[in-house]
From TrEMBL, chain A:
<feature type="domain" description="GST N-terminal">
    <location>
        <begin position="3"/>
        <end position="83"/>
    </location>
</feature>
<dbReference type="InterPro" id="IPR010987">
    <property type="entry name" value="Glutathione-S-Trfase_C-like"/>
</dbReference>
<dbReference type="InterPro" id="IPR050213">
    <property type="entry name" value="GST_superfamily"/>
</dbReference>
<protein>
    <recommendedName>
        <fullName>glutathione transferase</fullName>
        <ecNumber>2.5.1.18</ecNumber>
    </recommendedName>
</protein>
<dbReference type="InterPro" id="IPR003080">
    <property type="entry name" value="GST_alpha"/>
</dbReference>
<dbReference type="InterPro" id="IPR036282">
    <property type="entry name" value="Glutathione-S-Trfase_C_sf"/>
</dbReference>
<dbReference type="GO" id="GO:0006805">
    <property type="term" value="P:xenobiotic metabolic process"/>
</dbReference>
<dbReference type="InterPro" id="IPR040079">
    <property type="entry name" value="Glutathione_S-Trfase"/>
</dbReference>
<dbReference type="Pfam" id="PF14497">
    <property type="entry name" value="GST_C_3"/>
</dbReference>
<dbReference type="InterPro" id="IPR004046">
    <property type="entry name" value="GST_C"/>
</dbReference>
<feature type="domain" description="GST C-terminal">
    <location>
        <begin position="85"/>
        <end position="208"/>
    </location>
</feature>
<keyword id="KW-0808">Transferase</keyword>
<comment type="similarity">
    <text>Belongs to the GST superfamily. Alpha family.</text>
</comment>
<dbReference type="Pfam" id="PF02798">
    <property type="entry name" value="GST_N"/>
</dbReference>
<dbReference type="GO" id="GO:0006749">
    <property type="term" value="P:glutathione metabolic process"/>
</dbReference>
<dbReference type="InterPro" id="IPR004045">
    <property type="entry name" value="Glutathione_S-Trfase_N"/>
</dbReference>
<dbReference type="InterPro" id="IPR036249">
    <property type="entry name" value="Thioredoxin-like_sf"/>
</dbReference>
Amino acid sequence: MAAKPKLHYPNGRGRMESIRWLLAAAGVEFDECFLETKDHLTKLKKDGFLLFQQVPMVEIDGMKMVQTRAILNYIAAKYNLYGKDLKERALIDMYVEGLLDLNELIMHHCIQPADKKEQHLATIEDKATNRYFPVFEKVLKDHGQDFLVGNQFSRADVQLLETILMAEECKPDILAQFPLLQSFKARISNIPTIKKFLQPGSQRKPPLKEEDLPKIMKIFH
Amino acid sequence: MAAKPKLHYVSERGRMEPIRWLLAAAGIEFDECFMKTKDDLLKLRKDGFLLFQQVPMVEIDGMKMVQTRAILNYIAAKYNLYGKDLKERALIDMYVEGLFDLNELIMTSDYQPADKKEQQLATALDKATNRYFPVFEKVLKDHGQDFLVGNRFSRADVQLLEVLLMAEECKPDILAQFPLLQSFKARISNIPTIKKFLQPGSQRKSPPRQEDVPKIIKIFY
């Protein structure tokens, strides 16, 4: 029996969260080794486990994989969440990359200095509402299907749900103008593997708390 | 006969350059439509050609593709530059993503304000020498093969060459400690499609001229 994938990262969302989502969506159980101090990171580096001296790192199928997108691509392809052909993959990649950009923006909110936070939040809301969400509302409207690509559940659906929920944490009514995204959210949240991941006690991580930020920064800097 | 791919961007390297490299490496002729003013970008947006209102955009195989990585993934897979199986793809993705990070650091330094530019470039070259190049020197040393992955030319080789040359432009002796990267550079530069791309008059772009930077930034902001 194959060993469970093992995730190496601090106990927070950061760049590992999308990977947790995808593994969970695929119904793949995984273990986590949390970096608590800079020494942990230094040790991983010294042991030669981090190709570019960085985390996320995921031990999977005999590899020590690094680089978020490389890891996501591998999981998606392995578990058939990457479309059925090149053209579906192209669509999925475009959607996922756009969503990862928005994710990145939201993720950086917690590290904004106090005087920039409000402006940054406004930028997140603006981009979510005017640049990204309209695209996916239209995609769903145009084909009338349950999933974003190829009438089949894929990593694009997982990424969209993750990003919608993160955006809602910033602004609870952010989906007000997007009825199809609202029903998408309900529908995808009900998929058994996703539903399980959304329950308390799962390996899904909460947003970073203000008071935990210094500790996390110290690990990396 | 299929239409040639058509690239929409400014006449600069930026985020389009890896795409030019990969198409050229694959021996694919392409056309370019250069944005010269903000109005050119606004027109593309108004016409609904840019999924997330951004360039790069590449018209290819009936799609208007956006998002650099999505475009590169499609080209690589279509022209068999993406390894022969999942595990080779995983390696290629890890290498390419690391090189992308370095590419981004070097490329964006040209667009930083004067007081930040030197610092960022120094950081980029430090990372090149201590974090990234040692990895690829070791990969080549360990397997003794001509190409990075699977004993076969792939997008990883193209991306590595592109970044090696960019780094050398900043610091001509940057490969001094990396004999295998030096021979890699010579070897890959000699591949006919690459050799052609490296000749004057090709569609390869130069680093931006200092005096052009404000104008370029104004197109996007």
